[in-house]
Design goal:
Blueprint: H1 8-19, H2 22-27, E1 29-37, E2 40-43, H3 45-55, E3 62-71, E4 74-82, E5 88-97, E6 100-107
Parallel strand pairs: 1-6
Antiparallel strand pairs: 1-2, 3-4, 4-5, 5-6
């Protein structure tokens, strides 16, 4: 089954995650962008880098997109997460602000 068609920024974030490309992943975020990981919020490039080193790309996370929906400027993808940390289904909601991600929110 083919993965759903996604907005370019969301596709780039998934691809950067799957290839372990931390710099590209970080460059997709607005300067004041944030990651909300189940209520823990990491704002700005330094905080996002520390979070992803410890819990995301640093854990060789892989995301297989199984569904998506878009509501306004937010696209939520349903994924199957793999890697050396959490494994299982999870939702990632990407709020876009122009050509950058302003928020990536991770929920169940």
């Amino acid at each position: 089954m083919a993965e759903p068609r996604l907005p370019a920024l969301v596709r780039q974030a998934v691809d950067a995650t799957n290839s372990g490309d931390l710099d590209t992943f970080l460059d997709l975020f607005a300067p004041d962008g944030a990651v909300d990981d189940w209520g823990r919020v990491f704002t700005g490039p330094d905080a996002i880098r520390a979070w992803t080193d410890a819990e995301f790309i640093g854990k060789q996370v892989t995301l297989t997109v199984t569904g998506s929906r878009t509501d306004g400027d937010t696209t939520t993808i349903r994924t199957q997460v793999g890697g050396n940390g959490f494994n299982g289904p999870s939702d990632f909601a990407f709020t876009l602000d122009g050509d950058r991600i302003s928020l990536m929110r991770i929920t169940g």
